User: Fold this.
Amino acid sequence: MPGHIRIVNDPVELVPLLMTLNDPSFKKVYELLHKSWLTESEIKAQVDSDCVALCLQILKKGNLVEEQWRMPKPGVNPEKEFRATYNKFRANFQCNLSDLSDILYISLSNDENLREVVEQIEGELQKGNNSINDLSRKFNVSPIFIKGLAKRITHMDVKGQGLVLLDTGR
Assistant:
């Protein structure tokens, strides 16, 4: 895969990458996917199987893996297989240190306060308040903080200037 460079233009795009590289199991999954195309079951055979589905969701959300259908033997159902998309990284953004601090905190923290903020944001989304700016004012955090949380949470995403809940079958 020579020449595949992940160019990050928005600091929020760091969240899935930092989450992946900060967790030993996630990092192992990512390293395995650098070597070859693997199905989820093949990855589970080599890594703690409890984390593989979540790791793949985060990698897909961060556009860090590509997927395709593996052609099965006759009579066998096809399976999706995955491969890491990038082998190099380039940052092309500027942000203030407060925003960078938020990104790092969201990416690397296991703080229970994050869970509480996410639950409150989900409640606001269900009420119809999906504006990133409105949510950031309501919870007294930066818009980057709200966007970063959306990148961290697998069932939430940024669409334009708003947040949406994704139907991920949870």
In short: The helical segments are 14-22, 24-35, 40-44, 49-61, 97-108, 112-127, 132-138, 143-152. The chain has a mean pLDDT of 90. The two ends are 34 Å apart (CA to CA).
